[in-house]
């Protein structure tokens, strides 16, 4: 598999995981230092997923 194709596959897996809110997939494909910056300037870090899950679980 060509490097370009591997990158595309990982990106698609990440986007699919985001849409499905599948934390297991996101943990698999995102580096611990990953930061997503929204158009609004708000940032989401991989580590925040666990904090959010603990809050949601009550």
The main β sheet shows up as: 2 strands, antiparallel
SSE string: HHEEH
What percentage of residues falls in helices of 4 or more residues? 55-70%
Q: Low-confidence stretches at least 5 residues in length (pLDDT < 50)?
A: none
Q: How many helices in DSSP terms? A: 3
Instruction: Assign the structural class, choosing from mainly alpha, mainly beta, alpha/beta, alpha+beta, or little secondary structure.
Output: mainly alpha
Spatial strand sequence of the major β-sheet = 1-2
Mean pLDDT: 84
Beta percentage is 5-15%
Q: In terms of topology, how is this protein built?
A:
Blueprint: H1 3-20, H2 23-29, E1 35-37, E2 43-45, H3 46-57
Antiparallel strand pairs: 1-2
Helix pairs in contact: 1-2
How does this model look, in words?
By secondary structure, the protein is mainly α. The chain has one domain. About 65% of the residues lie in helices and about 10% in strands. The chain contains 3 helices and 2 strands, in the order H-H-E-E-H. Strands 1-2 form a two-stranded antiparallel ribbon. The longest helix is centred in the first third of the chain and has 18 residues, at about 5-20. The N and C termini lie far apart (about 45 Å). The model has no long low-confidence stretch (mean pLDDT about 85).
State the gist of this model.
This protein has 58 residues and is mostly helical. The protein has one domain.
Which properties best describe this structure?
single chain, mainly alpha, two-stranded antiparallel ribbon, 64% helix
